[in-house]
Amino acid sequence: MDGGKKRLINKLVHSCMIGGEKTKSRATVSKTFSRLSQTTPDVITLLAHAIENVKPTREVEKVRIAGTTHNVPKILAKKRQETLAFRWIVEAAVKRRIMSQRNESFDQCLSAEIPEASQKRGSTRKRRDDLHKLAEANRSFAHYRWW
User: Fold this and answer.
1) Where are the domains of the chain?
2) Residues 59 and 76 sit within 8 Å (Cβ to Cβ)
3) pLDDT at 121
4) Residues 7, 9, 13, 14: what is their CA dihedral angle, to the nearest 10 degrees?
5) d(Cα 123, Cα 93) in Å, to the nearest integer?
6) How far apart are the first and last CA of the chain?
7) Distance of CA 125 to the CA centre of its chain
8) What pLDDT does residue 147 have?
9) CATH entry 1.10.455.10 includes domain 3-144
């Protein structure tokens, strides 16, 4: 396994971690990967596609100009793109777990969310598209960027 794949796995483990319990987070991620390996032979590639499809390229930043606050679009750095993608996938899995009628574990919800993201569907992709629409709608304020 090369460094990029290890980095993806570590970032997923860190994103899933609650209260500094890394061993529980590692166990959850390994359960998720074992569930995904039943349907897909290469789980790491599936995760990479999911992250690639969910990564936003731009976002809006609130800037106060002359007493009014404007949403100014800005381009995101690669690290921030990946961080947002991981965060959104984990948040969607948590929300799916809360909203599910039957008692599903977090690894079940996460293993359902990753393939949806890799197929450009689901709530995480919708969140990305909504952010891009907001940045596009506020494109007229782009001249307020000072960097």
Assistant:
1) 3-144
2) yes
3) 92
4) 20
5) 10
6) 39
7) 9
8) 53
9) yes
Structure tokens at 103: 């008692």
User: Which ranges of 73-144 does DSSP label H, i.e. alpha helix?
Assistant: 78-99, 106-118, 122-137
Cα–Cα separations (whole angstroms), residue 121 to 16, 49, 115? 21, 12, 9
CA 111 vs CA 32, 86, 95, 97, 122: distances in Å: 5, 13, 13, 11, 13
The structure tokens listed for 32 are 């998720």
pLDDT (tens digit, 9 = 90+) per residue, 26-79?
Answer: 999 999 999 999 998 899 999 999 999 999 999 999 999 889 999 999 999 999
Distance separating alpha carbons of residues 26 and 34, to the nearest angstrom: 12
Q: Are the CB atoms for 47 and 12 separated by under 8 Å?
A: yes
**Maximum distance among all Cα pairs of the chain, rounded to whole angstroms:** 57
